From TrEMBL:
The name this protein goes by in its record: Alpha-1,3-galactosyltransferase 2-like
Membrane-crossing residue ranges in chain numbering: 9-27
Lineage: Eukaryota, Metazoa, Chordata, Craniata, Vertebrata
Annotated GO CC locations: Golgi apparatus; membrane; vesicle
Keyword ATP-binding listed: no
Active site: E287 (nucleophile)
Keyword Mitochondrion: no
List of residues binding UDP-N-acetyl-alpha-D-galactosamine: F106, A107, V108, Y111, D197, V198, D199
Species of the source: Stegastes partitus
GO molecular-function term, one example from the UniProt record: metal ion binding
CDD domains membership: Glyco_transf_6
Cofactor note: Binds 1 Mn(2+) ion per subunit.
Membrane topology classification: Single-pass type II membrane protein
Amino acid sequence: MGYIQKTKSVLKCVLCFPIMLGVFYFTSPSLRLLIGLIPMDKCSLESGKMLTLDNSVDASLDLRSRRDVQTCTSWKAPIIWEGMFDPDLYDRVHKKEGSSVALTVFAVGRYLDEYLETFLNSSEQHFMLGLPVSYYVFTDMPEKVPQIKLGPQRSLKVIQVERHARWQDISMMRMKAIFDTIESDIRHHCTHVFCFDVDQVFSGRFGSEALGDSVALLHAYYYRFPVTLFTYDHNPKSKAYMKTGDFYYHAAVFGGSWRSVKALTEACYQNIMEDKRNNVEALWHDESHLNKYFWLHKPSRLLSPEYCWDNGISYRGDIRVTRLLWAPKHYDTLRTP
């Protein structure tokens, strides 16, 4: 029995190490600076024409323009960085094809007062300009949604949702709300869907170059980590369980065609509910389930951390532009009942 207990203790330490390092990383500017010096893998493709193309315009991507970062995946999906694409070309192609985008965002409880107005106003300045955009605001207080001056071809719909007692449940149950709304509404009006956390602010172009069939975001804090340090869920009892993976994706932003986002949210919701029936909760809630889904169903397009950056991270030379920024977090007050 002594040997078994010692073995269990060693295994616990091994499994907890990535989490402990992550905590230290989030609180240590010096370590964050050193992490920024770790080289990324390099794209093995010579040309955008060699990619598995989401859209014919992706053949124009200059994969060699950013030798400081990884610009494609092993399954030939592009990773979008500043300097790789011609924004005017992408806009022309997507306008010609009739692309339209649904943006979903949840603003429940104090998050509505703290973040929603700034999020929407900044989106009007930077998100998918020139394309039809339909906002879907999910909230428990529809009467408090601010009046926003919208540009041409842009609309806003408010959808009332239940407020759960735990913020973790709010985060996880958004998957069902998004799935239901895609099925009942979005699929009839929009070609693509992007799902955002509300505690963010658009700060630069977030345009049609981000559109694809299945779109995932590289997490700003983990994109230079070795895969062994990614904080996947290592509990075999959870449907989110992963031994390893490709990248660590941030659930603050994900998207794709309405069909792909519908499939993703339905799968994540079903796995969350199965975990609940088994009295299990994934380590990082819906984000853990999202990472498991993208491990099994490779995204066709990855967005670099430019598309969701935290200015609290030390200077990084590879981040030439920030398109979406983390807003200041006040979890001590926002997540209390």
